[in-house]
Amino acid sequence: MEQNSGSFTQIVLRKLRKSPIGLISFSIILLAGLITIFAYFIASDKTQNANRQDLAIAYAPIGHKQLTLEIPLPNYTDSRSFNDYFFGKEIDSEHISISSYKINNDQLEYIPYLGNGLNGEPLKVNLKEWTKHNISLTSIEKDFVFDKTYILGTDSYGRDFFSRLVIGTRISFLIGFIAVFISLIVGVTLGAFAGYYKGKTDNIIMWFINVIWSIPTLLLVIAITLAIGKGFWQIFIAVGLTMWVEVARVVRGQFLSYREKEFVEAARALGFNDFNIIFKQIMPNIIAPVIVISAANFASAILVESGLSFLGIGAQPPTPSWGNIIKEHYSHIILGKQHLAIIPGLAIMILVLGFNIFGNTLRDLMDIKN
């Protein structure tokens, strides 16, 4: 008979390494986390929210290459700050799709690309637009006229679809973290008090839990959102305030079981106060089920946020999220641009599936009887 040795965490990690499906789901979650942190390192469009628009190349196909002319704006800077690397750079230059160009004396003449194979009349730009920013003539042709590749094409506004999709990962991933964090604070606290004190405290908290439980999650989130307003942080708070109920029920059940254990009776006999017994004696023993339910809530939060963004209540444009990307392009499923709606839908499905599978795997791994 195999004997498990080591701490509880070491046993779980050892079992996880032997679970291929658990490792795959964990890898998906880890990849999404890395993309969330380094989104602007990965994205092709490094401006805030990848919101650089060019209607001339709207709905460009996957892998489209376009000759592009970059003209500095008055606020142009040739460097990026620490904040720009993680939150995107303010648009400080204009990107123009062109068919060809030539430099004559102190002017750059180009033929603008109008889309669908059409070209416009030649236009001229004074080279001072570059030289006033200490950009040499050699650098103009080397760095400010280039072929720009759109890995997944462009959306209806001519924005880089790949970059929008990558940066949209942040909303879906962070909503899970913040919503789960809020649900743990509220759910664990109420569940612990209800299960430990029982009696009237338990009755009041359970009545409140049952009332919240009876309201459909989506309707409750919409109501909270309308009360506190639309926005990036508001949606995080709204989703978090609706996901604590299941946590509270699980924690309450665990506390009802553990409050009668011998080590709790011993703690009371030694004179430990209720706070010490709840948070230092019982709480460490219920971490496993709380972690498992948190993984499930993470997946639920992603789905709720995507649904709200699709309805226009979640993250507001131009902030990209997978939900509002689908909203902008779902009608194109029958118009020959299916990937604009299908790819973010697949991203949601894969990430949610990853969290659900990882939660189920954790449940099995944390069963020390196995």
Automatic annotation (TrEMBL):
Residues 169-359 form the ABC transmembrane type-1 domain. Pfam families: BPD_transp_1, OppC_N. Its main location: membrane. It comes from the Bacteria. Keywords: Cell membrane, Membrane, Transmembrane, Transmembrane helix, Transport. GO terms for cellular component: plasma membrane. It is found in: Cell membrane. It is a multi-pass membrane protein. Gene3D superfamilies: MetI-like. InterPro entries: BP-dependent_transpt_permease, MetI-like, MetI-like_sf, OppC_N. One of its GO terms (biological process) is transmembrane transport. The chain crosses the membrane at residues 21-43, 173-197, 204-226, 232-251, 286-304, 340-359. Belongs to the binding-protein-dependent transport system permease family. PANTHER family: D,D-DIPEPTIDE TRANSPORT SYSTEM PERMEASE PROTEIN DDPC-RELATED (PTHR43386:SF1), OLIGOPEPTIDE TRANSPORT SYSTEM PERMEASE PROTEIN APPC (PTHR43386). This is ABC transporter permease. The lineage of its organism: Bacteria, Pseudomonadati, Bacteroidota, Flavobacteriia, Flavobacteriales.
